[in-house]
Amino acid sequence: MMRDNRVLLVKGRRKDYFSLPGGKAHRGEPTVSAAARELREETGLVAERVERRPEWDYLRDTQKLYRACSVEASGQARPACGEIREVVWWDGTGALPIHAHVAHMLGLVFHKQTA
Fold first, then answer.
1. Count of domains in the chain?
2. CB 40 within 8 A of CB 80
3. What residues are paired with 86 via a beta bridge?
4. What is the rounded CA–CA span in Å between residue 10 and residue 58?
């Protein structure tokens, strides 16, 4: 989720690191539908366009695959559920504690923005 060359990140209630909005898909739920649902549940934003972006995926330890989507959404981002305590729009500069898989994915996203 990008706006004005900044990416939306969330920090969970019991987490020290920021991550991208998202979570597990329900059984049989397409990735793009899960992305839209998780974005709304976590931030209150309503997805208007979701595109699957497999080139941004991240495979951790050959077992856990993080699937990526680009999203256009409307609304004001805010912690919208009990599991999220903070949301930030990050421009990729400055120190921010993020997970390794998020750093990998954001490196690809920000590279695309400048290419």
1. 1
2. yes
3. 11
4. 18
Six-digit token pair at 109?
Answer: 């996203």
As to burial, measured by CB atoms within 10 angstroms (0-12 exposed, 13-18 middle, 19+ buried), residue 20 is buried
Paired sense of beta strands 84-90 and 69-74, if any: unpaired
Question: pLDDT band at 114, cuts 50/70/90?
Answer: very low
pTM of the model: 0.84
Amino acid at 85: R
Planar angle of CA 109, 3, 111, nearest 5 degrees: 20
> What residues make up the domain containing 68?
2-114
Q: CA-CA distance, 3 to 20, in Å (whole number)? A: 14
Query: How far apart, in whole angstroms, are the C-alpha atoms of residue 99 and residue 30?
Result: 24
Nearest residue to 25 (alpha-carbon basis) of 41, 14, 9: 41
**Euclidean distance between CA atoms 58 and 40, whole angstroms:** 23
**CATH number of the domain residue 18 falls in:** 3.90.79.10
